[in-house]
Amino acid sequence: MNSFTQAIGFGIVTASVIAVSAVAGTLQFGVTRYINFALGDYMTLGAYSAYVLSVVWGINFWISLLVACAIGAVVSLLIARIVLAPFVRKRVSSFVMLIVTLGVSLILSDVILAIASGNPKQYATAIQDEAAFQLGPFLVTPAQIVVVAIACAAMVAIHMLLAHTSVGKSMRAISDNPDLARTSGISVSRMTDIVWMVSGALAAGGGVLLALNTGVFTPTFGEGYLFVIFSAVVVGGAGQPYGAMLGALVTGMATELGALVLTSAYKSDIAFVILILALAVRPRGLLPSRASMS
Amino acid sequence: MAADHALLAVSDLKHRFGGVQAVDGCSFNVPQGSVSALIGPNGAGKSTVVNLVSGALPLQSGHMEFLGKSIGGRPAYQIARAGLIRTFQLSRELRRMTVTENLLVASQSWRLESPWVALFGRKASRTLERELLSRIGEMLTELGLYGQRDTYAGELSGGQKRLLELARALIVEPKMVILDEPMAGVNPVLIDRVVEVIQRFNARGVTFLLVEHKLEVVDALCDQVVVMAAGRVIATGSMGEVRQDSAVVEAYIGRAN
Amino acid sequence: MEDILFFVANLGLFFFAYVILTVGLNIQFGYAGLLNFAYITFWAIGAYVTGVLILGPAPGHGITYILGFNLPFLVALIAGGVAAGALAALMGALILRRLRSDFVAIGLFALSFALYDIVGNYTPLFNGWDGILGVLPPLNIFQLDANAFTIYYLVPVGLATLILYWAANLLQNSPYGRALRAVRDDIDVAASFGKNTVWLRWSALVIGCIYAGIAGGLMIGFLSALSPASWASSETFIIWAALIVGGAGNNRGMLLGTFLFVIVALEATRFIPMPANVQNLIPALRLIVIGAVLIVVLLFRPQGLLPERRRIYALPGQS
Fold this sequence. Notes:
By secondary structure, chain B is α/β, with parallel strands linked by helices. Chain B has ten helices and ten strands. In chain B, the strands form two sheets. Chain B has a six-stranded mixed sheet, with helices on both faces. In chain B, strand 4 (61-66) and strand 5 form a beta hairpin. In chain B, helix 3 packs across helix 5 (122-142) and helix 3 (99-107) runs parallel beside helix 6 (158-171). In chain C, helix 1 crosses helix 11, helix 3 packs antiparallel against helix 9 and helix 10 crosses helix 11 (251-268). Chains B and C meet through helix 2, helix 3, helix 4 and helix 5 of B and helix 6, helix 7, helix 8 and helix 9 of C.
């Protein structure tokens, strides 16, 4: 079991963690056309909710996960309706929306800090106590299998949504060409509500996955992971859900393989370099994209 | 008075937005010194052509020449510096700057816009500024905006913003101006004034291309009309000629223009 | 008596540095409309580079850093500003080309996180998480002790502040400043009448970051030590909120915002008596309040407390 294959294995796990949140961010961006700086905090919210439910109250892990996603969906929708909507009505620039979502991020992360305190929490569940075993060329722990499985399930669900439901098709239409979508009778406001719920649910789930993978988490751990998510989103093309999955794979693999050479302290810096390169060289992303970046 | 020399020559322009072919092989010339119009039903691709020519959209296919030199692929600001200025269909003014400042920033030479000049060349800037302000005063008076000279551009009425848009295009002393629906929302009383201004500047040698829906204006003002439909040019000629062209009539059937 | 003087002098030094930082940020944000979350990082670069140039060669075990040339203060200070400017030039060249402002902001935000990580982990650079220390008071020609030096240092720092403030005013009230504001208000329109928007934004980024770097270089002179803890990104959020509340585009407005936020919000809360368990929540509550104030101000008074003043020009006699 050499370190190279092991790094590939880690890359798949990291990619799974990134993918769920990256799809959350890119779906929301595709419909709303502005960046949500609080995405990382929705992840944190998910992680803390699931923690309270499963570790503190002892509820079954899978139920806790689903409830955490539901919480994420509801909070995301409420924030979008109450805080963000007035600005959208005033038609402020996406630049100002970024600052507004920064304000939301500050509030959310510090509410969590106030309630839960800043001490790192450990996502210790029964799954994590189990030992690693051999799966093909990889040495994996059950926790890692769970992470990859959840991410795959989420990706399949998203694909089903986008390809086979009218909601998903409407979302894609708005993302490609908002004016055309509007004149075709698609209710942009209803789709916006739906995308915020989906994005919130996915981000919460992504936060749980991140907590499972890293073990300990703090009120700002989602925020800190934000630009790793953004790397994946930009590489895949902002607004392109399948691109985000591809971007997650690229970023996940690159950070783990890079860690072989540079030591793991610099993993997030690799994600940073990827983000910068993507922005500088190919801001439209690897897949053909319509969402405007310039 | 249309010279042979084409100031702007567009050939076989094509542009695709995702699944939609907005422009599908568009070719036309704008003769130097003319006032030309680009007309056609909604969705014909007129705005896309304007965006392509001015460099606001990247060129996918086709060829564009201005003053005999290719402008395809050049960034918007370089095309503007070459003397081809465009206005926008939905007024885009610099909201947090006054009317005077809008015109000042447009007309000030880009050579003065450096930190070096700001620190060490104040005297030169100030002299040039005085000249510009005098021209700006005249322009504002001509267009009836002198009273709003210190108003924030964002606070103007719709019609006033249109006039500011026109003033901004003309104050830079362009060689050619593409006006995208300049009359939209303008007080009927002022439409005559706008027409006068266009004619006056045309007499001074500025070439115009108007994208316009008000056909009576086009009739009164324009030497040449280019008709577009479904991404292509379907007729060119004077307003009288084009009116009788069967393809044009067909393209306009059922349109409220 | 001496203690009060020393305290006031210390406050004065921080104030001068804040003026330089705020004014530089105003050029980037208030004038060019660039959101630079990495601003504090450029301050740190300036401080570190100036510091390691003043210091002698690294002793080796325990403390490692680059350079260490024992250079005179003025040279080190200029080098600090240049280093910050060079990094800004590089970053700007990479991401300012065709990107809309919010994506530029994300790129710069990522830079701040990455540099924080790199400086902390890669100890050969600036001694990692422990940071550099022992930077001797610069320009100390009279060999003053710590307290007297603080008062004396007000003079060179105050002078630098005056020069930089005056220069910023010149930049802002010039064709260059006007062009920056045009780019800020509508970048496509500015390009449509011939402004090289890429160069304009890039130059504003570089100039603003040079200001940050010089502020850093001046401050290392009286801080004498610097570690990553002092410049974590969360510091910048507070400065941003201050700028927006105070009024971007207006130097005095931004100073007012900084004063209100930094001094009143952060320091004043110390003096309000409250039960112990609430006391622990104060850091979190502070940021919640800042976030809420930011959103409210953006909604109801986006131009800030002291908005950009309207510029009136005399148009030679018309009807």
